[in-house]
Structures are given as structure tokens and as C-alpha cells.
Amino acid sequence: MTDGAHTAERVTLARLPSGVALTTTVHTYRGAEPGPTLYVQAAQHGREINGTEVLRRFHERLPLESLSGTVIAVPVANPLTFDRVSYTTPEQLDSVHPNMNRIWPGDAEGSLHQRLAARLWEYVTAADAVVDLHTGSPDMLPHVVYREGDERSRGLAAAFGTDLLLAEGAGEDAPDEWHRRGFEGKLRVAAAEAGIPSITPELAHNKQILEDVVETGVTGLLAVCRSLELLPGAVPERDQRIARNHLGQVSADAAGLFRPTPGLAVGDEIAEGEPIGTVYDPTTYDALQEARTERGGLLYALTREATVTAGDQLASVAIPAER
Ligand SMILES: [Zn+2]
User: Fold this and answer.
1) pLDDT by residue (tens digit) across 244-263?
2) What spacing in Å lies between the alpha carbon of 60 and ligand 1's midpoint?
3) Cα of 63 to ligand 1 centre, how many Å?
4) How far away, in angstroms, is 136 Cα from ligand 1 center?
């Protein structure tokens, strides 16, 4: 019996205008015993670097000798946004699709992001499960998003182990806004559509490595490996809240400075119509908007970046769901 093996391969994703090859590193962990394949990636939104750090520590902690099956890990799925510490790519590099997480499964002959995605999609289609690591704003409850009604994806989300799970309706079950914003092009949605259970952990914070966030990610990934029987051991039973990820979040109607309602914090249950803060004109002091939630539920994100422009998201509220 062998001990399993790790290889790291430099893969060309696409070609830049100057002719420089855009490359990234793909890690493959092959167990001594046969088993399923898990594909995990981080930083398709390049400022979301906690997922990248999660994969470095997963690399240190994965007990290769106990692995049955294969894990494929891509710590920097999108070097373009990673280098810019950004969410999207400037139009000089992709004038058609600035957000990589709207174009899966990609197109090998399409725009730059479509080519990146198409190259990585080759690994995705060989997998039995997909984890796409993201991180959100500083003031957000860590959670895992899965496709509503997809039991295998829900199982992965539960195994990952955050206290909050968000079920998102897709396709015909999704509201107009979901289609308008191109959410069918998310990796998680495209993979589920291809019959591969998939989850999007949203760990809190970006741009900074936060120890507790990274630990949540590493233990979550190892638990996902156990749930898939890539690793031995049981996944602990947890008491998790499940909510519906409704779109139509609370957004700014006017540009100005946003002051959240004092005392309001993520994790609070809030009622329909409850004020979540005020947008002020910083020069005249006029209150331009009393922002209120249209629906009651669980406040899971609240912006602390005060300078807002019309359309910016101020808060996110999830509607508690039955198990
Ligand atoms: Zn993201």
C-alpha cells in the first residue's frame, strides 16, 4: 500500500494581450485508496483571500495517508482579480464579462474570463462534488449557500458546518432578479446543473487573513471530505439555522453616508419594516433615506462602509426556512 501523493501543476488558463501566459497552480492529492473526487477553488474574486489561506492550511493538515479518492485544489482561480485585490476585472482585460462568477461553465473561445472558467471547468466535470470558497464583507455571518431542493448539496453545506445555511432557489424557482443578475453563471449553479453537488461557503471578511475565519474554512473542508468518505471519521451533528436566501436585499436609494441603526448587529432577528439605518447628505445633513427591510428575518450582513452610492447593498436579510 502507498501513502498517497501530492502533485502541483502549473496550468495555463489564458493568454493576455501582451502574449504573457496567465497561469495558476493546481494541486492534486491522490489517496492510496480509490474514492470520489472533490474539486475546491478559492479567489475567483481575487480580494477574497481567506479561501486561498484556507487551502494552504488544508494542504498542511490533510492526512494524505488516510485519503481515499482525490482532492483537486486551486488556491487562486482568478489571478487577474487576485493581483488587483478586486472583485471584478477591468474592461481592458474583459470588456464583456467583468465578473468571473457569472460565466460558468465558460467558453474556451470566449472572453478572457470565459476562457479561465472553461479551463478550470475541465477539472470540475471530473469531480463528484464542488466547493467554491468565497468571502463576504467584514460584517457578515459566515454561511454556506446551496441550491434549494438539492439534497446532496444541502448535505455538503451541513457538513461544512457554519451555523447558517442559505438555500437559494435556482432556474424556474428563482425570482426575476436572480436571472437579471446572471446568477445561473455562478460556478455553484453551473456545477449543480451538471449534476455535481456544490456549495459556496461565504466566509466573513476579505483582503485580510482572519484566523477564526480561516479555521472555520479548514475544519469545514476536512468535514466535507469526511462526509464524502474521502477521509475516515464522522461529521458531528450540528444545530444549524437554515434560511432562504432572498434577493431584493436592502439597498441605497440615494448616494451619501450610511449610518446603521445603533445597536443593530448581524445575527439579529428583525421584523418587516424595521429601520436598519439612515443615508444622509454629508453636506446638508438632510436624511435622504430611512432604509427599512421589506421582509422580516435574519440579518446576516450589514455594511459598515459608510460612503454609499445609489444601488449599493446596505443589508441582507434571510427568511428562516423549515428544515
Ligand atoms: Zn465572491
Assistant:
1) 876 658 999 999 999 999 99
2) 24
3) 28
4) 7
Confidence of residue 322 (pLDDT cuts 50, 70, 90): low
Q: What is the dihedral of CA 215, 138, 260, 314, to 10 degrees?
A: -120
Specify the pLDDT at position 246: 65
Ligand 1 midpoint to CA 282 (Å): 30
Give all strands (DSSP E) within 63-218, no chain letters.
68-74, 129-135, 143-147, 164-168, 198-203
Which of 304, 316, 196 lies closest to 248, judged by CA? 316
State how beta strands 164-168 and 143-147 pair: parallel
Angstrom CA distances, 130 to 35, 203, 265, stand at 15, 16, 31
Residue 235: the pLDDT is 93
pTM: 0.94
173-177, 202-206, 261-265: least confident range: 173-177
DSSP state letter for 38: E
User: 43, 136 in Cβ contact below 8 A?
Assistant: no
